[in-house]
Amino acid sequence: MAISAFHSGVNMINQSQSMVTSAAKDIQQSTLPSDNPVSQNQSSNLALSSAPSAVNSLSSDETITKAATDLLQAKTYNQAGVNVVRRADEMAGTLLDIKV
Questions:
Q1: Which candidate among 26, 46, 73, 86 keeps its CA 20 to 30 Å from the CA of 33?
Q2: Cut 0.90: pTM above it
Q3: Sign of torsion, CA 69 70 73 74?
């Protein structure tokens, strides 16, 4: 089974789209407030019953910086994928011109 250049280019474009989606979700999550507002009585109960969570190891600024870097990388992947598709189209056109 031969893998065409079109297939490779479209895969790169799809990869960049998933990277953009992931980065957008990261930005959205980092800008949401980390705690929901609770009343005074509930907050004292929660403070005793819940330990601090270490799930989010990156600060909001670090998350946004990483997401911005991922967006730039996705832009580069997208441009590369588009160039591969363009070159494959040109090559197919040249082959058709030679054949005719």
A1: 73
A2: no
A3: negative
